[in-house]
From TrEMBL:
Has a role in nuclear-cytoplasmic transport of proteins and mRNAs. Gene3D superfamilies: 3.10.450.50. This is Nuclear transport factor 2. It is found in: Cytoplasm; Nucleus. It comes from Podospora pseudocomata.
Length: 124
């Protein structure tokens, strides 16, 4: 491959969850108007709608811990990332398992952004 897709993916995932846990509003800069989020089967299209969805989630505090971040390059020069991990919300003592998939692509200026984002809690 002509680029370090795994390195980019690892840096992205670390940045994404650190930002999510400290200032969800700042995640808006990672999306564009053609980006789509599916969060627990609810879809949001575009930067403003995605930011609104993420900032209005029904908890105040969250701490993510990702266990895996597997990445592959796409045929069009993007990166697909599958993350598995656990998160703690508010004062809960028991972590919730989650899975999240991202497709990163580059804008005309060469900046990586989230084109697709799918999040699911994993029960059982």
């Amino acid at each position: 491959m002509a680029f370090d897709f795994q390195g980019i993916a690892t840096q992205f995932v670390t940045h994404y969850y650190t930002t999510f846990d400290t200032d969800r509003k700042a995640l808006a800069g990672l999306y564009r108007e053609n980006s789509m989020l599916t969060f627990e089967s609810a879809q949001a299209l575009g930067t403003a709608n995605i930011a609104e969805k993420l900032t209005n989630l029904p908890f105040q505090k969250v701490k993510h811990h990702f266990d895996t971040a597997d990445a592959q390059p796409t045929a069009t020069g993007g990166i697909v990332i599958l993350v598995t991990g656990q998160l703690l919300v508010d004062e809960e003592a028991n972590p919730l398992k989650f899975s999240q998939a991202f497709q990163l692509v580059q804008d005309p200026q060469g900046q990586w952004f989230v084109f697709n984002d799918i999040f699911k809690l994993v029960f059982g």
